[in-house]
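Closing statement on the zinc ion sub-project.
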Amino acid sequence: MPILNRAAEMQKEVAEWRRHLHRNPELNFDLFTTSAFVADKLREFGCDEVVTGIAKTGVVGIINGRLGSGPTLGMRADMDALPIRETSGVEHTSQNAGAMHACGHDGHTSMLLGAAKYLAETRNFAGRVAVIFQPAEEGGGGGNVMVQEGMMERFGIERVYGMHNEPGLPVGQFATRTGPIMASTAEFTITVRGKGGHAAFPHQTVDPIVIMSQIVGAMQTVVSRSADPLDALVVSVTKFHAGDAYNVIPETAEIAGTVRTLRKDVAALAEKRIRTIVSRIAEAGDAVAEIDYDANYPVTFNHADETAFAVAVAREVAGEPNVEDDMPAVMGGEDFSYMLEARPGSFIFIGNGDTANLHHPAYDFNDEAIPHGISYWVRLAEKSLAA
Ligand SMILES: [Zn+2]
Ligand SMILES: [Zn+2]
């Protein structure tokens, strides 16, 4: 079965919703107009329950099937934008300067709304569908907050699925994998406090720039000499700030960066090695180091049975050769990881075609993907909750 006729018919309407959301991006947990738009649509479709205010602006809609009772299936989209100034030049460009839907969450929200509309019209399943719209995916952990607030128990959600668009993957194609599909993330800030002074008298100072340079160099060995070469690990220093003058050795130097892995034990190893390297090199240089290390999103881990099921559904919609079931893992992080820690489920990528990359100021979600995304969600619900 290719994409559903009804989903193809809905494309224009859903693309209009998508463009409306794209014009009006909001950030983090403050998705007041976005979540009101979503909740209004869900009520208009005749959802049996529409609950707002979960994790501040999260929304859950419940649709009961007409084929009897059964389990509750969770299907999740994210709604937040990014603090980026848009340069796409599209007609529906952001009207909110400094905010932009550069990750396609406008598309994710619209496709799940389209599926909700279809499912509320047809109700060709036994049990219930919970459509989950979360805030603060781009940092802030809105999905985690929804789980912490008891969403899974409250709605009796037994399995949960997520979807993200992927630039570079052709429209009409899907890709996923069993096991870790996206990385755990951690952010660190390190400050080295030395002793400032005149650059002509370095021996009377403790130069934090030299010490911090050694730390940055030594941190490269966490991946190359501490971790197993077969385990994925990224340690990136992305900020290095110190000093203001040609002739002054500053008092402090500061770096910051990110650590990403696909396994908990590798994440723990990286943190331990970074703490040791920083404190011992600082000590050797007679300086003092402060380390602020925040473990952030966990690994997004796709459960085996649910991933096999998602692949079968995607193949039904897209055709056998258009679904990659063993893609390489991606070292980006994803807040859906918390929902997959709470319930079995699976995360899949949907092709966005040849567009600018995610988080790029010229990115735009590809509306051609809409019928494919809606068809996936609808068939996932109908197949998973078959009478
Ligand atoms: Zn993103
Ligand atoms: Zn995203």
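Residues 103, 105, 137, 164 surround zinc ion (ligand 2) (CB under 6 Å). With this model delivered, the sub-project is considered complete and its resources will be redirected to Aim 3.
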